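Human: I would love a firmer grasp of how sequence relates to backbone shape in proteins. Take your time, and here it is.
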Amino acid sequence: AEVIEDGVTGRLVARNDAEAVAAAAMALLANGPALAAMGARARERALAMFSIEPAVDALDGLYRQLSAAVG
Protein backbone atom coordinates (compact mmCIF):
# COMPACT_ATOMS: atom_id res chain seq x y z
CA ALA A 1 0.00 0.00 0.00
CA GLU A 2 1.16 3.48 -0.71
CA VAL A 3 2.14 5.54 2.30
CA ILE A 4 0.77 8.71 0.70
CA GLU A 5 -2.70 8.58 -0.82
CA ASP A 6 -2.88 11.51 -3.22
CA GLY A 7 -5.37 14.11 -2.11
CA VAL A 8 -6.22 12.18 1.05
CA THR A 9 -3.06 11.97 3.16
CA GLY A 10 -0.81 14.18 1.08
CA ARG A 11 -0.01 15.16 -2.47
CA LEU A 12 1.95 13.15 -4.99
CA VAL A 13 3.81 15.00 -7.71
CA ALA A 14 6.13 13.93 -10.50
CA ARG A 15 9.73 13.30 -9.55
CA ASN A 16 12.07 16.20 -10.23
CA ASP A 17 9.17 18.57 -10.98
CA ALA A 18 9.86 21.59 -8.80
CA GLU A 19 6.94 23.50 -10.31
CA ALA A 20 4.51 20.72 -9.40
CA VAL A 21 5.89 20.61 -5.85
CA ALA A 22 5.52 24.38 -5.53
CA ALA A 23 1.99 24.34 -6.95
CA ALA A 24 0.91 21.53 -4.60
CA ALA A 25 2.43 23.29 -1.60
CA MET A 26 0.84 26.62 -2.49
CA ALA A 27 -2.57 25.00 -2.97
CA LEU A 28 -2.33 23.34 0.44
CA LEU A 29 -1.13 26.49 2.17
CA ALA A 30 -4.00 28.44 0.65
CA ASN A 31 -6.58 26.10 2.19
CA GLY A 32 -5.89 25.74 5.90
CA PRO A 33 -8.88 23.53 6.74
CA ALA A 34 -8.08 21.09 3.93
CA LEU A 35 -4.43 21.04 4.98
CA ALA A 36 -5.37 20.29 8.59
CA ALA A 37 -7.77 17.52 7.55
CA MET A 38 -5.15 15.97 5.27
CA GLY A 39 -2.60 16.10 8.08
CA ALA A 40 -5.01 14.42 10.50
CA ARG A 41 -5.74 11.64 8.00
CA ALA A 42 -2.02 11.18 7.37
CA ARG A 43 -1.39 10.84 11.10
CA GLU A 44 -4.17 8.27 11.46
CA ARG A 45 -2.81 6.29 8.54
CA ALA A 46 0.75 6.40 9.90
CA LEU A 47 -0.39 5.17 13.30
CA ALA A 48 -2.41 2.37 11.72
CA MET A 49 0.41 1.29 9.41
CA PHE A 50 3.50 1.82 11.53
CA SER A 51 2.63 1.72 15.23
CA ILE A 52 3.82 -1.17 17.34
CA GLU A 53 0.38 -2.71 17.94
CA PRO A 54 -0.36 -3.71 14.31
CA ALA A 55 3.19 -5.03 13.94
CA VAL A 56 2.87 -7.15 17.09
CA ASP A 57 -0.56 -8.40 16.01
CA ALA A 58 0.79 -9.38 12.58
CA LEU A 59 3.78 -11.16 14.10
CA ASP A 60 1.57 -12.96 16.62
CA GLY A 61 -0.68 -14.12 13.78
CA LEU A 62 2.31 -15.38 11.84
CA TYR A 63 3.65 -17.29 14.85
CA ARG A 64 0.24 -18.87 15.45
CA GLN A 65 -0.05 -19.84 11.79
CA LEU A 66 3.43 -21.39 11.75
CA SER A 67 2.82 -23.15 15.05
CA ALA A 68 -0.39 -24.69 13.73
CA ALA A 69 1.36 -25.81 10.54
CA VAL A 70 4.12 -27.55 12.51
CA GLY A 71 1.65 -29.24 14.77
User: Anything to note?
Assistant: Residues 32-50 form the longest helix (19 residues).
